[in-house]
Amino acid sequence: MNLSNSQLSDLDLDLDIAMSSSVPVLITASPEDAMKVAVEIARTTDNGHRGPLVVAAANLVGLTASMENAWARGGRPTTVVVPNIDAIDRNQQNVLMAMLTARGRTAAASPWRLITTTSVPLFERVLAGAFESRLFYCLNAIHIIIETHPEGSTSREGQAPVL
Questions:
Q1: Dmax of the chain from CA atoms?
Q2: What is the CA radius of gyration of the chain?
Q3: Beta strands 112-118; 78-82: pairing state
Q4: Which one of 48, 94, 131, 156 has the fewest CB atoms closer than 10 angstroms to its CB?
Q5: 159 in a domain, yes or no?
Q6: Does 22 reside within a domain?
Q7: What is the dihedral of CA 118, 7, 46, 54, to 10 degrees?
Q8: Residue scoring higher pLDDT (1 or 63)
Q9: 25 phi, psi to nearest 5 deg
């Protein structure tokens, strides 16, 4: 990741907030960078406790069962990472929205946190009618955007955020 000094400062602040909160996090970055950041946030949440981590399949199949298995094994809150959230269809968006709605009602019984990643501006998909606006606003509680600079720019070469 090639980031400017001000981008690193903003990113550090966003990461601190994301790591100390249980609200959903949306990461917009290249797929590789987004997953690195998502896993690091997941590893450092829940006051240092590392609960089970579930990375969802692209179509969310088996996500509920995977979460239940993780809770049974770990007994602590689970972090669910959904990569490429922009690629899920309307039916899958509705499933995820239902899970988030249920989470709000049963957070004490089955706590979990959601981190989603995308490499495209998700709001543009909302405007185009390809992504559910209610889900977008639920996912966008903390939005981390990692923009990379082209080669030869004034950014710090090869600089990755300190997580």
A1: 51
A2: 16
A3: parallel
A4: 48
A5: no
A6: yes
A7: 20
A8: 63
A9: -125, 135
Q: Is 119 helix (H, G, I), strand (E, B) or coil?
A: coil
In degrees, to the nearest 5, what angle opens at C-alpha 107 toward C-alphas 82 and 80? 15
The span from the CA of 74 to the CA of 142, in Å, is: 26
**Which helix or strand (DSSP H or E) is residue 122 part of?**
helix 122-127
Q: What is the CATH number of the domain that holds 96?
A: 3.40.50.300
Domain that holds residue 38: 15-145
pTM over 0.70: yes
Q: What are the structure tokens assigned to 118, written together?
A: 């995308």
Considering the domain boundaries, does residue 119 fall inside one? yes
Per-residue b/e over 99-117, b at no fewer than 16 CB within 10 Å?
bbeebeeeeeeeebbbbbb
Is the residue at 56 inside a domain? Answer: yes
Q: Give yes or no for a contact between 77 and 22, defined as CB atoms under 8 angstroms apart.
A: yes
3 state SS of 118: strand
**Domain count across the chain:** 1
